[in-house]
Amino acid sequence: MSSMLVFILEDDIMAIQKGDKIKVEYEGKLEDGTVFDSSAKHEKPLEFEAGSGQVIPGFDNSVIGMEKGQEKEIKLSPAEAYGERNPELIKKIPKDQVPTEKKLEKGMMLALKLPNGAQMPGLVSEVDDKEVTLDLNHPLAGKALTFKIKIL
User: Fold this and answer.
1) Disulfide check for 76: which of 16, 49, 80, 121 has CB 3.0–4.6 Å away?
2) pLDDT tens per residue, range 91-147
3) Residue 145 backbone zone (phi > 0: left; psi -120 to 50: alpha; other: beta)
4) pTM of the model
């Protein structure tokens, strides 16, 4: 009998750990089955550091322990995704303080400039003669999400 040594490359079998840089293909759906985002839409995989908070918490936690080539479907509660809707993020602003060249209408998205220079999207939820009501919640806040994930 001859004995044979078999070498297995650790990179090929190691489970993903916090701090690993990874690439994933994904598809995100709402509860009604509507696809709201996917790596195919962006024509490239999503790259991020696992466990670093660069993606939503439930997605981040779900890749820990997965292995290269592994696929799975995850269901996330609003708390694991974009959070619950926060009524404090609905703001009434005097209409004359909302700079826009377009007529303000319900359903319109506005880019609001923050003091630090960053921008934040705001959804116009109401408009009257004097005020504009803006919803500053993330558009997916309060929604349960399902993701199909494949580790590349």
Assistant:
1) 80
2) 998 988 877 777 888 998 888 787 888 888 889 999 998 999 999 999 899 999 999
3) beta
4) 0.75
Q: Measuring CA to CA, how many Å separate 33 from each of 12, 17, 55, 127, 148?
A: 33, 30, 21, 31, 12
Tracing tokens 């003669």 back to the chain, one arrives at 129
30: containing domain: 16-83+140-151
Q: How many CB atoms lie within 10 A of CB 16?
A: 20
Cα–Cα distance, 62 to 90 (Å, whole number): 31
**Are 70 and 93 contained in the same domain?**
no
Rounded Cα–Cα distance for residues 145 and 41 (Å): 17
If asked whether residues 75 and 22 sit together in one domain, one would say yes
Q: Which residue from 95, 85, 21, 76 is spatially nearest to 54, judged by alpha carbons?
A: 21
Q: What are phi and psi for residue 24, nearest 5 degrees?
A: -135, 150
Per the CB < 8 A criterion, the answer to whether 146 and 58 are in contact is: no
**Predicted pLDDT of residue 13:** 56
CA distance 65 to 68: 10
